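Researcher: We're teaching a course module on how sequence relates to structure. For the next exercise, students receive a sequence and then see the predicted structure as tokens, so they can try to spot secondary structure elements on their own. Here is the exercise chain.
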Amino acid sequence: MILNKLVFSTLLFFSFLNICFSQTNNVDIISGTIIDSELKHTLEGATIYFPKLSLGTYSDENGKFSINISEINNNDEIVISHLGYSEVRLKLNLFKNGEIIKLSSKNNELKEVIISSKEFNLRNFIAEAVKKYNQNKRINPHIALAHYTETAKKGGNYIMYMESIGYSLFLGTNLNASSYSNYKFFPENSKIANQHKEWKKYKRYVKIENADNILPGGSSNLNLLRYFETKGILSESPFKKYKFTKDSSYYKNENLVYIIHFKNKIDEGNIHIYKHNREILKIKCVTSIYWSTAFNKRVKANALINFKYFHNSPFITKIITDFSYKKLNYTNNLEILIQKFNNFNLTNEDYWALNNYDTNPFIKYNPEQWTELKITPHSNYEIIQNDFHQNGHNLYEQFKNSSDKWYSKKSSKNEKAIILIKNLKNNF
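Model: And here is the predicted structure for the students to work with:
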């Protein structure tokens, strides 16, 4: 389940910090709508950046944004930008809440959408895009507020439902660690319903010592991204093993986007790339490398990864996956709500403490907070609730019973990681 409006995501984040740290600073709400100055239509995906705080978000499908910020003053600057538009910088003392911000297009006219073999060499075009991605991606640890939901159905009925507000954390590189394993999701406020008898049958696949629950899949989508970056379509060397064909093209806010079809033995799908600057917009594909915590192995899955660029650096905004395997229908949605841009350092001990934490996180459930933060229930929440009720389970009771305890009672408890995550939240 993903928030129906990004306008709530920024409110979620800073309200969340206030609850966690009992901050007493005055909080200012900064909101507005981004539109095209000439055509007057709203602009989705415009970046809103606060240089002083090294913090950013983006406008929703209606061009709207809203962010709650403490510790700012009227001389602080807000920077609004969008691909193909001139950047706007405003002092907060000149910014009116709810203001309509007009961005001027850099393009004077649209040209016919044609993909011609004479226009560019297809493989070189992909190589340039992948090279730019790798040159500009962050290799140092970074953190973001995120929200994820996973569900599982069998025989047409829901048998598992998990949802968390938490943090996506890129841990950096470690020569002794798997290159897939250094991007994690750490839950902070969770709804856990994993006691359905049909779901518990999958515990037979769990191979972690003393684990008494199937592992949460919060990090599976991030693991898939790391595969693409190290051994897949986003890696400069392995991408040469792919076959590419021209698919189609379209304009996004007056910027020409090429859709390129790719295929190898593991993945097949489309990659969307802006023509003029080679920025990758999204990847939509079928891959056989998706990590399933239910089966404790990699399975074939559908995947969608969306990207947004802040200061030329690519960051994910959303990863959506689903698969059907051995009569189990599974979905996993991860959305990045607020991205923090400043880097921080982790010691080798810190790295391993965090790396292992997602296998047995400490679970907290605060129902009042979910209401206060205006998180929209899953679109099939009533059906999920009814399916669990028919199996003798009350969702709310499962949420409460899972709270204030380690996810797996018998597995090792990593209290150091909890302290590290709490300290890392100070980056915001």
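Model: If you want an answer key for the exercise: The two ends are 25 Å apart (CA to CA). The chain has nine helices and 19 strands.
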